[in-house]
Amino acid sequence: MQKRELLYEGKAKKLYKTDNDSLLIAEFKDDLTAFNALKKGKEEGKGALNAKISAKLFKLLEENGIKTHLVEVLDDTHHLVKNLKIIQIEVVVRNIAAGSLSRRLGIKEGKVLPFSLVEFYYKNDELQDPLINDEHALLLDLVEHEDELEELKRLGREINVVLKSFFAKRGLKLVDFKLEFGKDEDGNIYLADEISPDSCRFWDMQSGEKLDKDRFREGLGGVKVAYEEVLKRISEDIK
Ligand code: ADP
Ligand code: UDP
């Protein structure tokens, strides 16, 4: 499948049209941004690492009955994906307090949550992706029906169950992560975008070391080494 015209260039990926209207090519870039793109950087090889990590996790989820947009891995940095209408909601699932949850509600970073928390954020760069509730989502017409919000929460929790135990077996705590979903022409909902250290928090179970984009956000260095470590762990064949 050939890349045709560039459809969209985002902060971390480019999307290209293909000869087939129902398929797109996603290219993973080396660019890193944080704090609504106020902090910008680049890490050579980051795109390829995220493409590999995301492909592995999407395949794992498919095996566990989750429909995803991934059609085929084309090469190191390109995935062939279903062309979806993205639901403009970022679904964040949290197991341990960190980031904006800690800042907003004063919950100490590292506190294990008594249940997995699912949050909705309005995917809107101009408004800096604000936290919203179900009624806001309906008010903004982000979904067609309330049931779809329940479906997003259910999918978020189901994905969390699969990923949390997968990472635990590999010595990583899955702290939190962000998901995006999209619809095909028939209204079927698929997991879209990516799941990678750019969109998740992973802490090493032994050392507590952060192995995700917080290394870039917090200027800790060793971004690429951390992403390589995540890829190494998830490539291990553990039952
Ligand atoms: P951002 O848009 O936040 O800068 P990216 O650089 O990752 O993020 O850009 C990828 C864009 O592609 C996102 O806006 C995402 O919603 C969108 N996208 C991801 N998967 C699909 C898909 N299967 N079909 C259509 N759009 C998608
Ligand atoms: N996240 C993301 N994209 C966003 C916002 C958040 O991938 O636009 C991920 C982030 O990497 C983390 C989780 O969602 O794994 C929760 O992020 P949080 O709300 O704590 O935001 P932050 O601390 O980055 O402000």
Give a quick precis of the structure:
By secondary structure, this protein is α+β, with helices and mostly antiparallel strands. 30% of the residues lie in helices and 33% in strands. It folds into two domains: 6-82, Phosphorylase Kinase, domain 1; 85-221, 2-Layer Sandwich (D-amino Acid Aminotransferase, Chain A, domain 1).
Describe the structure.
With 239 residues, the chain is of the alpha+beta class. It has two domains: 77 residues, Phosphorylase Kinase, domain 1 (2-Layer Sandwich), CATH 3.30.200.20; 137 residues, ATP-grasp fold, B domain (D-amino Acid Aminotransferase, Chain A, domain 1, 2-Layer Sandwich). Helices cover 30% and strands 33% of the residues. Strands 8, 9, 10, 11, 12, 13 and 14 form a seven-stranded antiparallel β-sheet that branches. Strands 1-2-3-7-6 form a five-stranded antiparallel β-sheet. Strands 4-5 form a two-stranded antiparallel ribbon. The longest helix has 23 residues. Bound molecules: adenosine-5'-diphosphate and uridine-5'-diphosphate (UDP). Adenosine-5'-diphosphate (ADP) binds next to strand 2, strand 7 and strand 12.
